[in-house]
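New to this. Please check this fold:
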Amino acid sequence: SEALLALPQLQSLNNQRVLICRGVGGRETLAAGLQARGARVDYAELYRRVRPSYEQQDVESIIYKSLPSVMLVTSQQSLENLDDLCRGQSGSLPIHQLRQVPLVVPSQRVAHKAEQLGYNHIHRALNATDHAMIDAIQHSLQHTTADEEHGKIHE
């Protein structure tokens, strides 16, 4: 949303109609920004965001049996779902181990949430494009420890 609102083409939208196709209950940031620039905004809510249900033994075998070298999340909700699933029922899984794995995120907002949740090696991509995310993954694999001088979030 923030990257779209920064585009020069979207600075003046006097009486233009914009249809935002999104999941049920999506963020209001884009709509509010476009409306402030004169757009008439409608929504087409096309899917529901639902956290999948996995058995604890599946999470253990897929994630904890051999920790990943790097993780990529593309939204705050994906991060929250990952964190919830990987804590296990009643906090029985070793989430602290997962929070040491380098984490690539697409935005400052998701990076901030990761920091709040306790992730220690956060690599923020320049943007959410495939190219930027791949660059951030490569960078994270080359720099697997937090740079104490610059904080926990790497750009």
